[in-house]
Write a structure and sequence with these properties.
two-stranded antiparallel sheet; mainly alpha; 333 residues; 4% strand
């Protein structure tokens, strides 16, 4: 029973909803109820008369394969993100990225494709360089490539196989979640020397820009189009433009997350390798103090006046006995 205890509360609730509504949908179909789709799926023309479908549609899968895929995505994605953000922020992310677009749906919505796309975008932000190994090491894929692979697969499937709903949901989940994480979501400042719990809004890092979701060969044209759209949204005051300081701080945030890698959050709750919250806080505090010490040392070196008559190395035997000099060591000429 240890594996059940290690799953965070909200993730357990979402997994339970997935099982309940997906099994109910299959039971209604096997029972010959032709209106089962109206009861659980979001059909635009019927939605005003069945408002509960805005809640059930995401967790109502149509077959066993999609149930397994959705369950695995929720299990591993939820375990990591809920512990990284907290239950409140994770729940807000689900509501904004998946539920909000349903209010203006123009296609039938059933299944968790949008949720899967949103979770992949969040992983791209937090652990882009982590490598996932499949088939006993035969296939190795970095997390930052998952969103583009996911979108390409659903786009090709929609064009070739006619799965238009999955195509639309994949793009809606991707764009909505990226917009929220890029411009609006508040996150703790991990890289600043300020340990007072300051927060940043959005993620202005260069590696989380829209163009960086795509292969290197097509990044320049994608960046050109994305910049024009961004400038138009700024002109309409839909988005607040990032300052140079915002971009610098965003890059520091991304660097701090890259140094941390993929933490052992999946093993928390009962394992020798699980990292406690206190240990994580101490690690971040040590990184902040180290960054502060480096900045102070660099500033002192830059402001130190140069001697007008430098002495030969043999005669410069004076040693500064201050605590700062003792920590840094003799300054070389």
């Amino acid at each position: 029973m240890q594996w059940r205890i290690s799953i965070p509360l909200l993730t357990r609730v979402l997994l339970a909803l997935l099982l309940v509504f997906s099994i109910s949908y299959q039971a209604l179909r096997l029972g010959g109820d032709r209106t089962s789709g109206h009861n659980l799926a979001l059909i635009p023309q019927w939605a005003p008369f069945t408002p509960w479908v805005y809640f059930t549609a995401t967790y109502s899968e149509q077959n066993v394969v999609t149930i397994l895929i959705a369950g695995a995505t929720l299990l591993y994605g939820g375990k990591y993100l809920e512990r990284a953000w907290g239950s409140l922020e994770f729940g807000k992310f689900i509501l904004i990225s998946v539920k909000a677009p349903m209010l203006r749906a123009f296609v039938v919505i059933q299944g968790s494709v949008a949720l899967q796309g949103a979770l992949l975008v969040a992983f791209k932000q937090l652990v882009p360089e982590h490598t996932v190994t499949l088939l006993r090491g035969a296939v190795k894929i970095r997390v930052k490539h998952f969103p583009s692979i996911f979108l390409a697969a659903n786009t090709l499937s929609g064009v070739i196989l006619g799965t238009d709903t999955a195509l639309v949901l994949a793009w809606v989940g991707f764009l909505t979640s990226w917009t929220y994480l890029r411009f609006y979501k508040k996150q703790p400042d991990l890289s600043s020397a300020n340990t007072g719990g300051s927060q940043l809004r959005g993620d202005a890092s260069e590696t989380f820009a829209f163009a960086y979701f795509w292969p290197d060969a097509i990044q320049p044209p994608v960046a050109a189009i994305a910049d024009r759209v961004y400038n138009a949204l700024v002109a309409l005051r839909v988005c607040t433009p990032f300052s140079a300081n915002d971009v610098e701080m965003g890059n520091e945030q991304a660097t701090a997350r890259g140094e941390d890698g993929l933490p052992s959050l999946l093993n928390q709750g009962g394992g020798r390798n699980g990292r406690s919250k206190q240990e994580e806080a101490e690690r971040r505090r040590a990184l902040a103090l180290k960054a502060l010490d480096q900045r102070l040392h660099a500033a002192s070196m830059g402001n130190k006046p140069q001697p007008t008559n430098p002495q030969p190395p043999a005669s410069s035997a004076a040693v500064d006995s201050s605590p700062t000099a003792a920590a840094v060591g003799p300054i070389q000429p």
